[in-house]
Design goal:
Strands 2-3-1-4-5 form a 5-stranded antiparallel sheet, covered by helices on one side. The chain has helices at residues 25-39, 65-78, 93-96, and strands at residues 14-20, 42-43, 57-63, 84-88, 101-104. The radius of gyration is 13 Å and the shape is globular. It is an alpha+beta fold. The longest helix has 15 residues, at 25-39. It has one domain (14-104): DOPA-like domains (Alpha-Beta Plaits, 2-Layer Sandwich).
Length: 115
C-alpha cells in the first residue's frame, strides 16, 4: 500500500475514484452500487474507458466531509485489491489531484496534462 498520508477530512467536499479493469469490473460495479444504496452518495457511471485524468477505468463517488470518517474506513475495508483515489474538491483541479489526495491501496498514475 502506498499510503503516504492517513486520510483526514479537512475540505468541504470529496470525490473517491474506484479504479478497476476487465477482471475486476463486476466487483467494482457491485461495490459502487452498494455505496450508493448504503450511504446515499451520488455515484457516477462505471466507466469502462478512460475519463478525464484517470489512466484506468473508474467510477466516481461524491461525498461531503460529514460522511468522511465513516465512509473512508468502510470503503478501505471493502475495496479488496482495488485502488481508490480520494481527493478534495477545492475548485483547483490540479491541487485536488496532487496536493489534496489520499490513496486506498496502491497509487495509480494520474494524467495531469489537462488539469
Amino acid at each position: 500500500m502506498n499510503n503516504l498520508k492517513k486520510p483526514v477530512s479537512i475540505n468541504k467536499g470529496y470525490h473517491a475514484h474506484v479504479y478497476f479493469d476487465q477482471e475486476t469490473v463486476d466487483f467494482a460495479s457491485r461495490l459502487c452500487k452498494e455505496v450508493g444504496e448504503r450511504f446515499g452518495f451520488k455515484v457516477g457511471r462505471v466507466h469502462q474507458k478512460l475519463v478525464g485524468p484517470h489512466t484506468k477505468w473508474s467510477c466516481q463517488i461524491a461525498f461531503g466531509p460529514e460522511s468522511f470518517d465513516d465512509f473512508i474506513p468502510w470503503l478501505d475495508d471493502r475495496r479488496g485489491e482495488l485502488s481508490v483515489l480520494v481527493h478534495a474538491l477545492t475548485g483547483d483541479d490540479l491541487a485536488d489531484h496532487t496536493k489534496y489526495t489520499y490513496w486506498l491501496g496502491d497509487s495509480v498514475e494520474i494524467n495531469l496534462d489537462g488539469l
